[in-house]
Q: What sequence folds into this?
């Protein structure tokens, strides 16, 4: 199996035992997805064999795989949001009545039994989209389990879940493991690997690095194995000495708000500062950023950019003022999948100059090549379609798009989500470097460690309201306390 | 990412039914109570059913197609072709309707199978494929005959169309000026249409094929990953649509008793708007035929109200069309406003 430019998987051995949770780790482009696709029959492989219970099997489609007892649950839940929970569990294999019609009653009953057995509390008659992604994922797992699966592959299931939901998922995973199901768990969150897995297999550049017992591979060694180098300690990205925060204000917001999304807030951002927005999912982090940027037009309050009062009614105004926003939903709002790397990078610059101003091709090539080199974007050529790149590289392309406009102020909303540890570190370094050049950055991330490493100051949000700022004593504990708030534990 | 308002599928339907009652009530009061022009009679309502029997069948098929996330704009032309085949067959060729009616239904199946194959298996945009189907059917109609062909010769088809099915137990009967008791009636086409609505409703709710249509419209890739045969489901949907459209064509012919090249122009848009009014999402996955049925009634009521207004009918021509377009627009807006209000309340 080859992808453009790189051989995706070479000579990899992988063993999954009955009743274990096995983490499959590696950077983006390491070959995890390809391995899974080979196992589940999405892709065909050129060499090698798959044995299950000692017998050789070969899957030509996901259906084959399911028949052989291999089921996959993806990050994006592959169920139908418009159907009821029960239907999602049984569609295609509904209990039938004597005359061949669907017996809805029997289906509901069986669904209830199944949910009870797995201890998932849902009303099976409600539509799937009335439940959170976490519950939807568990329902997807329940479907797989009910279809007699022996191998369950969880591909980044936790990316969009909050901590409590992750814990629930882990409980389910453990109980399935105890029932003898082998689980392959793919994730970027190291903590989760150590919380739930028994064994780890590490891939790098399409090759096997090794298989380890969880106890034999402490966190730092794991990261080193994934990255293939003794990387400089993540902690040392930001050193106190070279902070270049000036007193000059880049952004001065007073009482900005957007109905039902974010309550009025004041916010100052200095030149050369990295301001972190922290809070739980849905606390209003993205909404605050979007409000400043004009993606959601502010309904009250005033905004000064670079000392001058301005009104931003649409993103193009913000762009003219030297702002850039990297949205959290990369697929839907960020990249344009069917355009090439070059076209994606040129997008923001083009819209800033106006659609009619043609940017000469050699100039475009120059800019594109510069950022491919600068950000180490792994792409076979400037004309490769962005959808063919891995997630981390797609993210870099969007960052390059904004850097090309030479912004004074960048908003990065979850720039590191769903990408590998190595790229995460590179992006964090880049953020710190931008600040050093005197640019201002708003950095949003769900990982507190990451925020602590990159940000000078943190603004804390809770339930759509800015509740405080943290400048001194930035530690995991203090931040978590601030996020949780006084009245909650 | 997440589609809104799917959560409350039924709410759109309830809003629709509610607004239909208001709309009909408005017509009732204006032209039945204030000006007594006869809107209050049950026959007015049954006439709406009678004139729209074909549209009801077609809207049922359209709903299925839209549930899968597709669209079928060939239906109007197919109706014209069906009518022309029936008319020319009976009048010029003197073929018995016993042969012609099954033939027309068969044409519907074949027509839908070809479009369904292109859409399902070759993955071509439904809009383009059914547009080609639309041009083809309209062109074929003209190729068969360019004149208007009236069905004048007597046969069972003509007799069947003429049958008046009276309301049982004299429900809604009135005595007219000359003292004759008038019992409200419908024709056979209405009965066919009602049976279609019920059968398609049951099919969508209680068969695997029906549920697959919802699944395909909800998420194409998910449906495939869950082991459903997406391609086959799509093909079946278009076959069903064209088949129901042919049944609609027969009903249409029962009403008009003729075939012309300009027949049923724009009928596909009426079917789509009926489905949309009835709460079927163009994006697929949400809706049911009962809603589309109410949607047809709303379209019909608007037409009926316009025809009861003397000022409008005197102007004639396209003016009633503009008014009904305006009413339709108002209706969709109201529906959206209600849906939004509810969403806000919840969220």
A:
């Amino acid at each position: 199996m080859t992808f453009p430019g790189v051989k995706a998987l070479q000579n990899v051995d992988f063993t999954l035992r009955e009743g274990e949770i096995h983490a499959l780790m590696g950077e983006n482009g390491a070959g995890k997805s390809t391995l899974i696709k080979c196992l589940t029959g999405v892709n065909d492989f050129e060499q090698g064999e798959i044995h299950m219970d000692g017998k050789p099997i070969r899957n030509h489609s996901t259906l084959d795989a399911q028949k052989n007892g291999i089921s996959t649950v993806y990050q994006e839940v592959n169920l139908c949001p418009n159907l009821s929970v029960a239907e999602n569990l049984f569609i295609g294999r509904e209990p039938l009545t004597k005359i061949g019609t669907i017996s809805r009653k029997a289906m509901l009953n069986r669904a209830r039994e199944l949910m009870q057995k797995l201890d998932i509390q849902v009303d099976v008659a409600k539509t799937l989209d009335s439940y959170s992604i976490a519950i939807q994922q568990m329902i997807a797992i329940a479907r797989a389990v009910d279809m007699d699966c022996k191998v369950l592959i969880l591909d980044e299931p936790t990316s969009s879940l909050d901590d409590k939901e992750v814990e629930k998922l882990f409980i389910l995973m453990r109980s399935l493991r105890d029932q003898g199901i082998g689980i392959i768990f793919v994730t970027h969150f190291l903590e989760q690997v150590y919380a739930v897995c028994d064994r780890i297999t590490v891939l790098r550049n399409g090759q096997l690095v090794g298989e380890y017992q969880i106890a034999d591979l402490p966190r730092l060694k794991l990261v080193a194995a994934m990255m293939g180098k003794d990387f400089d300690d993540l902690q040392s990205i930001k050193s106190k000495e070279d902070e270049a925060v000036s007193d000059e204000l880049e952004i001065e917001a007073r009482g900005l708000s957007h109905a039902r999304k974010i309550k009025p807030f004041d916010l100052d951002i200095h030149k050369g500062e990295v301001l972190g927005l922290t809070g739980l999912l849905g606390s209003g982090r993205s909404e605050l950023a979007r409000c400043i940027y004009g993606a959601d037009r502010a309904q009250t309050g005033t905004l000064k950019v670079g000392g001058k009062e301005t009104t931003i009614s649409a993103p193009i105004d913000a762009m003219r003022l030297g702002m850039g926003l990297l949205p959290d939903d990369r697929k839907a709002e960020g990249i344009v999948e069917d355009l090439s790397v070059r076209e994606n990078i040129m997008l923001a610059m083009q819209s800033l100059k106006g659609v009619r101003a043609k940017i000469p091709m050699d100039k475009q090539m120059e800019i594109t090549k510069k950022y491919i080199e600068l950000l180490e974007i792994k792409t076979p050529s400037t004309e490769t379609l962005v959808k063919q790149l891995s997630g981390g590289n797609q993210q870099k392309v969007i960052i390059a798009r904004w850097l090309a406009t030479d912004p004074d102020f960048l908003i990065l909303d979850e720039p590191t989500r769903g990408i590998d540890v190595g790229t995460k570190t590179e992006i964090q370094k880049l953020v710190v470097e931008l600040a050093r050049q005197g640019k201002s950055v708003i950095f949003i991330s769900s990982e507190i460690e990451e925020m602590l490493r990159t940000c000078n100051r943190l603004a804390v949000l809770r339930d759509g309201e800015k509740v405080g700022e943290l400048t001194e004593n930035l530690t995991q504990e203090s931040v978590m306390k601030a996020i949780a708030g006084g009245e909650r534990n | 990412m997440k589609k809104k308002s799917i959560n409350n599928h039924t709410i759109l339907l309830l809003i629709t039914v509610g607004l239909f009652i208001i709309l009909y009530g408005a017509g009732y009061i204006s032209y039945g109570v204030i000006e007594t022009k006869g809107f209050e009679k049950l026959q007015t309502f049954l006439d709406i059913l009678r004139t729209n029997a074909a549209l009801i069948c077609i809207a049922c098929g359209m709903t299925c197609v839209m549930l899968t996330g597709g669209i079928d704009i060939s239906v109007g032309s197919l109706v014209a072709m069906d009518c022309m085949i029936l008319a020319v067959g009976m009048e010029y060729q003197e073929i018995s309707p016993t042969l012609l009616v099954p033939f027309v239904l068969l044409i519907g199946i074949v027509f839908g199978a070809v479009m369904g194959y292109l859409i399902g298996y070759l993955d071509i945009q439904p809009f383009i494929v059914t547009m080609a189907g639309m041009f083809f059917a309209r062109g074929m109609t003209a190729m068969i005959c360019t004149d208007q062909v009236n069905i004048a010769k007597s046969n069972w088809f003509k007799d069947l169309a003429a049958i008046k099915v009276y309301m049982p137990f004299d429900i809604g009967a009135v005595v007219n000026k000359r003292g004759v008791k008038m019992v409200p009636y419908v024709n056979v086409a209405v009965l066919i249409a009602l049976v279609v609505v019920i059968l398609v409703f049951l099919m969508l709710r209680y068969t695997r094929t029906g549920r697959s249509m919802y699944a395909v419209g909800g998420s194409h890739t998910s449906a495939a990953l869950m082991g459903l045969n997406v391609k086959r489901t799509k093909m079946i949907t278009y076959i069903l649509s064209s088949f129901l459209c042919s049944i609609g064509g027969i009903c249409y012919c029962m009403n008009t008793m003729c075939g012309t090249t300009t027949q049923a122009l724009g009928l596909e848009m009426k079917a789509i708007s009926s489905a949309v009014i009835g709460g079927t999402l163009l994006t697929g996955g949400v809706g049911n035929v009962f809603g589309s049925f109410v949607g047809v009634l709303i379209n019909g009521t608007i037409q009926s109200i316009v025809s009861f207004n003397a000022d409008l009918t005197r102007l004639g021509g396209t003016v009633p069309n503009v008014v009904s377009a305006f009413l339709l627009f108002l209706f969709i807006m109201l529906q959206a406003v209600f849906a939004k209000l509810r969403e806000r309340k919840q969220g």
Summary: The radius of gyration of chain A is 24 Å.
